[in-house]
Amino acid sequence: MKKIATIILLIISSQLFAEEINQDQTKKNRSFSIYLRRYSTFIDSFEQRMLLQNFKYFDQYDKKTIPGFEFGFRKKFDNSNFSFQSEFQEYKKGNIGMRDIACLGRYCDLVPVSTGPYLRNQFRNTILYDYTPDKFRLSFGLRYIKSELSDGSGYRFNYTLGQKFFGPEIGFEYQTDKYWNFNLLIHYNYFYLFGKIDNRYSGIYTNRSPVSYNSDPNAIYVGGEFGIKLNYDFDDLYFLSIGILTLEARTKINSYSMTVNYVAEPQYKYDLDSITNFNYVIYNAANSSEILRSVYLEAGLKL
């Protein structure tokens, strides 16, 4: 009887031990994570600055935040210090507000106006290397950015301002140890992208003469992205984060390319070309900056 009881106890203990091993392996094998972020972002965009440069009577006015989201995943390769990460980000707003000159008699003032819908997409693919496991990582990858601001009023005018860039980025990522399931993660990425800008306009001028230009010079988009977030792990499966993200970049265009040639009647063409291209020099349109400052909430799952 004692032998039977001993055998039963051995079987039960071996099963419990096997379950513990399986649980430990499950914890260690959670090498895939998926997450969704919701952004609230202030954007001082390239397109807003170009609108000011093209039509100097516009003034930047809208300081409201723009909503955005990001979907991403990260996969840690088995028996390796390498990981792969992919992210898709989108910002969209129906109307970007600026200010325009309005006159009543001899009295003129700047009044709020809509300058059209704004859309920005970003796609990143990155390889990360654990230089110090679970502490410090190096990253290198590719980044794609496309943004556009457009508006129109029937036959009176239509314009499209935008940019499209693709190229390499490098960076690093540092994370602290966990305390009470909390830890911090800090990252910085530097990117150097190649592409074009869109600078198109069509409308009417004095005596209802049609005018238009279409300029898409080659350009370079250079900048950096800094982020910090606080993570909380509910358990081995679910996590929640809150973070801040800042992107500062500069669009560099060959100064000889940053010109427009209007399609207009001869009596208007010279003045239009001269005034617009002179404004590009004054406002330094060949070297325009862009800033995005965000706060976000992130929810994720480890598999």
UniProtKB/TrEMBL annotation:
This is Outer membrane protein, TIGR04327 family. The keyword Signal applies. Keywords: Signal. Residues 1-18 form the signal peptide.
